[in-house]
Amino acid sequence: MRASSYHINTLKEAPAEADVTSHQLMTRAGMIRKVAGGIYTYMPLGLRVLRKIENIVREEMNRAGAIELLMPVVQPAELWVESGRWEQYGAELLRIKDRHQRDFVLQPTSEEVITDIARNEIHSWRQLPLNFYHIQTKFRDERRPRFGLMRGREFTMKDAYSFDRDAASAQASYDLMYQAYIKIFTRLGLEFRAVAADTGSIGGSRSHEFQVIADTGEDLIVYNPDSDYAANIELAAAPTLIALRGAASETLVETATPDAPKCEIVAAQLKRPLTDTVKAIVLATEAADGKAAPTIWLLLIRGDHSLNEIKASKLAGFENGHRFATEDEILDTFGCVPGYLGPVNPRKPVVVIADHTVAHMNNFICGANREGFHYTGVNWGRDLPEPQVADLRNVTAGDPDPQGGHLAIQRGIEVGHVFFLGDKYSKALDATFLDTDGKPALLQMGCYGIGISRIAAAAIEQRHDARGMVWPKAIAPYEVVICPMGWNKSETVRNAAETLYRELEQAGVEVMLDDRDIRPGVMFAEWELIGVPVRITVGDRGLKEGILELQARSDEAAAKVPVAEALTAIV
Ligand code: ATP
Ligand code: MG
Ligand code: MG
Ligand code: MG
To answer: Where does it primarily localize (predicted)?
Structure first.
């Protein structure tokens, strides 16, 4: 490709609303353009990255025996009513009506449609196992779609669905996908970790997330450096907090600044009836009043206790001098989204009540921790029985972690998620096949998502510097850019650049020839922003000595390469 006939439009400034690096850099590099909140046009350079990610995912899915099809974005409500998710899904599910007032949804995932396909297409055990996938646009009406491609409303996902005869075979399909995911993220060139995870609104009994490691990630991962134990804190929340009381606490406390206890943060996570929860809140706030130091109390409540429900529970005097905060109010109070926390205001005693946002609350704790606050431990409420450390076993992914192991903590971006579904959807939609004994049996299912567009953003969050993006070769928009110095002035430079360009194209390298008449400084800055892994500078001075300059994006210094060896140095 020649830059003069391509569309390159970089910006000096990122839009004010872009508050994560990937959003800023993708916008500045002209890879995405916003159309509406959480809805973007993938511009040519951005689309190339997405296609490369898609291709790697497609190749590895095919290699693992999955079969590609394409299901629609618009799906009839009937199937969603059948599965129960029309009721359960909540506000993230975008519901639309056609001209006849019939209900439809824009798919957030495709369990319903694929199970409908399966019940019509799969008749006999002889057809199993089967794994169908597609790479398709998803829509989720996210509450705060403000991180560019990290959390879009419209985004691209690969989702696969496996069908098996029995649980053992379904487990084998799950393991196969797990292995395929390891290959995919390794090929993408990203540092990642597979962690045990919560099953969320998809349902099912077992799941793992694939997390790209990045300081700006919204998720927190707890892992044991000495064993295979790794879990999303969403799942590990209770054990982690318990661990804080015991042997493992040093790991976390180390990250705080012990000599600067500006405020205390006390957290409790209660998987208990509402009355117990309320009692604990009272105990916690009573204790808070007696303290001299300002205290922030975090009550982590897993469950569906709405604020109104809690307020209506005759919590006499509770509101006096304290503040209830919903998740939205947390944003307002602290000026940042949970997971992207800035400094906490230590002067405000706050009671935070979180419905099923344990992960966010834990991010909050650790965010505060990182700001130097002293984390004192866990208040489980005086008369509530203490959970046992042995609970740790409930969250491990197969080989239980030995009790009391030291846990480390790390931020990540969820880029993939595999679920063992069992018969959750096949039962709801009555998807059966005839088993070896001639009797109908329910299909055993698994489902497997990969956030194609989120991977592009995650790669940037993990790999960037002050000048811009630093793409892994496998997903860079172009692998090499040739920058001729004085394209319009020197025929020698033009010829050398053209020759190298032709040779690289013939060798199958994705190369950009920058034949624009712009200043070298501007040209270099633009390609550094875009993050092309290799830049070759062709100039009169070097050519006189028979050399080109080869600059790897991730290296400090450039290398001088003899013209004749340039091709082998790159390919
Ligand atoms: P999150 O916890 O970030 O909201 P999720 O758990 O809701 O994600 P899944 O239902 O597991 O997401 O979907 C599979 C994959 O789709 C995720 O692992 C992620 O990579 C991607 N994904 C989910 N939501 C979004 C989004 N709003 N924008 C971009 N990618 C997304
Ligand atoms: Mg989600
Ligand atoms: Mg998640
Ligand atoms: Mg998920």
So the answer is: cytoplasm
Whole-structure pTM value: 0.77
Measure 79 CA to ligand 2 centroid, in angstroms: 21
Instruction: Tell me if 463 CB under 6 Å of ligand 1.
Output: no
CA–CA distance, 86 with 59 (Å, rounded to integer)? 34
The whole-chain average pLDDT of the chain stands at 76
220 lines ligand 1 (CB under 6 A): no
259 Rama sector, left if φ>0, alpha if ψ -120 to 50, beta otherwise: alpha
Ligand 1 pocket mutation pick from 144, 454, 461 by most atoms within 8 angstroms of CB: 454
Q: Single out the residue of 431, 436, 434 nearest to residue 123, CA to CA.
A: 434
The DSSP code sequence of 507-570 is TT--EEE--S---HHHHHHHHHHHT-SEEEEE-HHHHHTTEEEEEETT-SS-EEEEGGGHHHHH
CA distance 21 to 414: 16
Distance (angstroms) between ligand 3 centre and the Cα of 270 equals 21
pLDDT tens per residue, range 70-87: 999 999 999 999 999 999
What one-character-per-residue DSSP string does 238-307 give?
A: HHHHHHHHSTTHHHHHTTS-TT---SEEEEEE--S-HHHHHHHHHHHHHHHHT-SS-EEEEEEE-S---H
What residues sit around ligand 4, an ion, with C-beta below 5 angstroms? 417
The pLDDT tens digits for 138-149 are 999 987 777 899
Is the per-residue pLDDT at 420 higher than 90? yes
Closest CA to 557 of 547, 549, 565, 569: 549
- Contact 454 CB / ligand 1 (< 6 Å): yes
* The ligand 1 atom nearest the CA atom of 419: 11
Neighbours of 542 (CB within 10 A): 18
For residue range 213-244, list pLDDT tens digits in order: 998 887 777 777 777 878 876 565 433 333 33
How far does the centroid of ligand 3 lie from the alpha carbon of residue 391, in Å? Answer: 22
Query: Residue 291 — pLDDT band, cuts 50, 70, 90?
Result: very low
Atom of ligand 1 nearest to the CA of 201: 10
Q: Which atom of ligand 1 is nearest to the CA of 200?
A: 6
Q: What is residue 402's predicted lDDT score, i.e. its pLDDT?
A: 40
Backbone angles phi, psi at 37, to 5 degrees: -55, 120
Mean pLDDT score, 447-464: 98
551: β partners: 535
Rounded Cα distance, 182 and 527, in Å: 30
d(CA 144, CA 152): 9
Report ipTM for this prediction. Answer: 0.99
